[in-house]
Amino acid sequence: MTSEAPGYVAPGKGFDRDMNYIPDRITAVDPATGEPRRPEHGPADVPLWPAEPGRYRLVAAKACPWATRAIIVRRVLGLEDVISLGTPGPTHDQRSWTFDLDPDGRDPVLGIERLQEAYFARIPDYPRGITVPAVVEVESGKVVTNDFPWITHDLFFEWRDHHRDDAPDLWPDDVREEMDEVNKRVFTEVNNGVYRCGFAGSQEAYDAAYDRLFAALDWLEERLTDRRFLMGDRLTEADVRLFTTLSRFDPVYHGHFKCNRQKLSEMPALWAYARDLYALPGFGESTDFEQIKRHYYVVHSDINPTQVVPKGPDLASWHAPHDRDRLGPTPGFAVR
To answer: CDD domains attached here (predicted)?
Structure first.
């Protein structure tokens, strides 16, 4: 997510994620005023930008779970021709994510070598970590926002006029309140919980983080035993948010972050659920296990000083039948 200087563990302390991001939002244009409309959800006093096809580029590394959720949502909603995608490589130095996968090491649309350049174009000497996902205005080359929870939320709510005809309703109104609660627990206890384990600076901090993480995974295992998706028989953004952590669990979090009570493949409902999602358009194709492993094992050099990337685990079983269709219908966008 971030390109902070190496040194992710604070000795003697627990992990506390910095959640301060550029708060701007990209919203649909109000036809009466011609200006971006004030969004229904979220802070009311943030700068707004108009949702205009072709104006923005999503910069999102497949190595990063927070960025991968944006890649998946963009694909699921059919926004590929509306918002272009730039993909930095899996590793970075203390300055910035870099476009080392592209010819000549430059993003082919923005023409930059480092994502840092887009941040500095907007905010000279930007003082925080250079994070992905980030949305960049193509013409000016300036970053618009890196506020990852709202990026995917707004891809659904503010770009609806440009969704594919069979796009799923990722935020159903009738379960919104419950879904907000599920998202909160998944974020604090699972998405962030694995980092709380991996970046623990004391035995006490690690033990507490480990217990919290697996208590939440036990809750999810039970919840998903008799329902196909987190909110029942409908795919929602809650599933996207959980998937990007589950897909990294055995390759990275189990060993590298010491989340080793069980592997994902040893939790029957969660494992089948993850494979079910992996088979859907946008999920498996946005999951690059080699980039994921290289990112964590190379970048977190204080946890893995040798920067040796493990060969395993064997990932062929991600393609095994999941038998989850007995619990509910397959999302319409996945049927061709």
So the answer is: GST_C_Omega_like
Q: Which residues of 246-270 are buried (b: 16+ CB within 10 A; e: fewer)?
A: bbbbbbbbbbbbbbeebebbebebb
- Cα-based distances in Å from 321 to 76, 247, 272, 278: 22, 16, 8, 11
Query: Distance (Å, rounded) from C-alpha 140 to C-alpha 118?
Result: 9
Q: Which helix (H) or strand (E) holds 136?
A: strand 134-137
Residue 162: strand, helix, or coil: helix
Active site residues: 64, 195
pLDDT in tens, 144-169: 999 999 999 999 999 999 999 999 99
CA-CA-CA-CA torsion sign (202, 204, 208, 211): positive
Between CA 275 and CA 283 the distance in angstroms is 10
CATH class of 173-334: mainly alpha
The neighbour count for residue 18, using CB atoms within 10 Å, is: 11
> What does the domain layout of the chain look like in residue ranges?
25-162, 173-334
174: which residues sit within 8 A by CB, 6+ positions away?
Answer: none
Q: Which of 226, 183, 161, 231 is nearest to 41 (CA)?
A: 183
Q: Which two tokens stand for residue 197?
A: 């384990």
How many whole angstroms separate alpha carbon 218 and alpha carbon 255? Answer: 19
List pLDDT tens digits, range 245-285.
Answer: 999 999 999 999 999 999 999 999 999 999 999 999 999 99
Please tell me the CATH code under which domain 25-162 is placed. Answer: 3.40.30.10
Measure the CA–CA gap between 26 and 13, rounded to whole angstroms.
37
DSSP annotation string for 65-100:
HHHHHHHHHHHHHT-TTTSEEE---S-B-SS-BB-T
